[in-house]
Design a protein that fits this description.
Helix content: 40-55%
Strand content: 5-15%
Structural class: alpha/beta
Oligomer: single chain
Shape: globular
Distance between the termini: 47 Å
Bound molecules: glycine
CATH superfamily of the largest domain: Dehydroquinate synthase-like - alpha domain
Number of strands: 12
CATH class of the largest domain: Mainly Alpha
Length: 369
Amino acid sequence: MTAPLPQPLPPPLPLPVAYPVWCARGALAGVAEVVRRCAPAHRVAVITDTTVAAHHAASVTAQFPPETTRLLVIPPGEQEKTRARWAALTDELLAWGAGRDTTVVALGGGVVTDLAGFVAATYLRGIPVVQVPTTLLAMVDAAIGGKTAVDTPLGKNLVGAFHNPAAVVVDPDVLQTLPEETLRAGVAEMLKHGVIADAAYFDALLQALPSLAAEGGRAAALPALIAGSLHIKADVVAEDTREGGLRQILNFGHTLAHAIERELAFGIAHGEAVAIGMVLEARLAERMGVATPGVAVAVQDAVRRAGLPDGLPAGVTPAAVVRATHGDKKVRDDQVRYALPRAIGAMDPADGRWGVAVPDAVVEAVLQG
Ligand code: GLY
């Protein structure tokens, strides 16, 4: 299905990050070339899940010599992003005798890119990982920025490491096999990029929503929109890799999203939870006097037009969500801080903290509607 890579490998995107990011139709055929250039290795471990393996594992592993290549396949789903799965993958690499001269290729959605990235970050104190995201969400968010992690029963991504990839390979052609709802989940993170940094990008994405709905992963607008999102995210992480300040704007919508996900025992797609979180946090921004009136309606309208949910799911109470926000990584001195927009395309700096402390009572009142 994936077109052969145009020869030679096209130039990577001009992004301000320390590693090259390719975004081109057919780029999947160039994974071995990217490994050769950016993370040359004696052995290559391709980590993926069964869903992605069915479509793409053979075409990727065939690019490497069989005797020095291992394909490690995990079951799909967020429930696999655990310390137990990290240990099992690490043990498989140890049993294979993989040394520091091994490169991990993470081929999959956000679960695989986070988990395989964490395996690479910790294996023998760190080996290179080339991120090859196969969902829209992983392309525009998870695979760049160097965050790797696993979940624990107390919350998402609570055990992890910053470990920049050696390179990222984005092939928009792989989206052609993506289910509609998985594509929509990625659109939520793209809308977030527009809200936090770029009103023109937000508008361009809104214009493209009908074609994304009609044509899915085949939509002609997708490669440019993915590149636009990559530019926004790269600009942020280049300025603040370790989330000491500005990078927190990428958490817009996520404080409530993570709480909702926890309340539903992760029985909701991350992108759907982010969509709900963005609508509610935009309302919070207006209630706190941070956002100009109209921002919350604009966010809600965009979320609806993208076919994403915009309110608390049935059975999830405002009080329970507020309680769950206290398990978030962003809690400081027991105060929950929210990255809030001032306007579409501009976040509130909050005196350089990029997070506004909002009293629980205010959050609960906003969630009650
Ligand atoms: N997904 C948010 C970040 O990379 O910081």
